[in-house]
Amino acid sequence: xxxxxxxxxxxxxxxxxxxxxxxxxxxxxxxxxxxxxxxxxxxxxxxxxxxxxxxxxxxxxxxxxxxxxxxxxxxxxxxxxxxxxxxxxxxxxxxxxxxxxxxxxxxxxxxxxxxxxxxxxxxxxxxxxxxxxxxxxxxxxxxxxxxxxxxxxxxxxxxxxxxxxxxxxxxxxxxxxxxxxxxxxxxxxxxxxxxxxxxxxxxxxxxxxxxxxxxxxxxxxxxxxxxxxxxxxxxxxxxxxxxxxxxxxxxxxxxxxxxxxxxxxxxxxxxxxxxxxxxxxxxxxxxxxxxxxxxxxxxxxxxxxxxxxxxxxxxxxxxxxxxxxxxxxxxxxxxxxxxxxxxxxxxxxxxxxxxxxxxxxxxxxxxxxxxxxxxxxxxxxx
Length: 382
Description:
Elements: E1 2-9, H1 15-33, E2 36-43, E3 49-51, H2 59-62, H3 66-70, E4 77-80, E5 84-87, E6 95-98, E7 100-103, H4 114-122, E8 125-126, H5 131-137, H6 140-149, E9 157-161, H7 162-167, H8 169-174, E10 183-187, E11 197-199, H9 202-215, E12 218-223, E13 228-237, E14 241-243, E15 247-249, H10 259-263, H11 267-270, E16 281-282, H12 289-306, E17 310-319, E18 324-331, H13 339-344, H14 349-368
Parallel strand pairs: 1-2, 1-7, 7-8
Antiparallel strand pairs: 2-3, 4-5, 5-6, 9-12, 10-11, 10-12, 13-14, 13-15, 13-17, 15-16, 17-18
């Protein structure tokens, strides 16, 4: 029986969303298979690592006294020795060898490639995008540059750095004069629509940038797309890709798809963003057949250009009158794995996690075939 470590939490603004993804979308269906030894690994907001069966239950976190509960648990250690081992504290502490890691760490210190680098060094199979593709995907500026270089269309945008903004606010804002209002202002490295603003004048633009630079060192400022239909396309695969459904975002209560719209519509009864379909999206998207096919192809082009593997979700912007599809951004670890969309595509929650583990093992086996050692007599000359 393979041991699967589900790693979640971490020092990220998306910490809480990560917990819901791990517990509801990964740990629960993995246990339902009866095929795996599932080990929850929680990284607290201060960066401490814990592993306990209790951490796989959402009630541990929803009661509001997480810090008190964590104080009763002992931190674990990691060991890199021909793979990844979890070492429980104390004399003769239990050693658990991990076969596959299933990351659920959204945002900083996880989804951005940080965790993937650690797992590569440990020499363990893991689910989802690798170091390079994760880093590119989590940088909205870099991902647009890579997509554009591959011939994928993007809406008009510019970037702005925190240092530049703080040193010479007036001139840095002048750089953005070439963009036509209304604009969207976003942190380059955050997900879950945190600190995203839609602005209609210079004052709002300045305020929005100040908010962004509270969370990030780089902002991306984008022109709004006219006649907009916003869609998202989940994909899984390594070389051979499987596309789920093209899903249309429905924005009725807010001007754009912000954090509250995603995650705070329904609380415990609605389970927030864990059941997106029916609350604020339509599957399949209500667009022409031509635009539907074009959206699928654009999503695949982005996935391959960035070098994704395992799974990712590609967000697109459609100008329905111009019949144009633009790449917006990519999420290398979709919240809740976008289960609701895969379910519509005929993939159950259990099938989804099992397939992702298969893809992780497939990539790991292929990489093991590559040589990383080069023998020389270079040192003999010293």
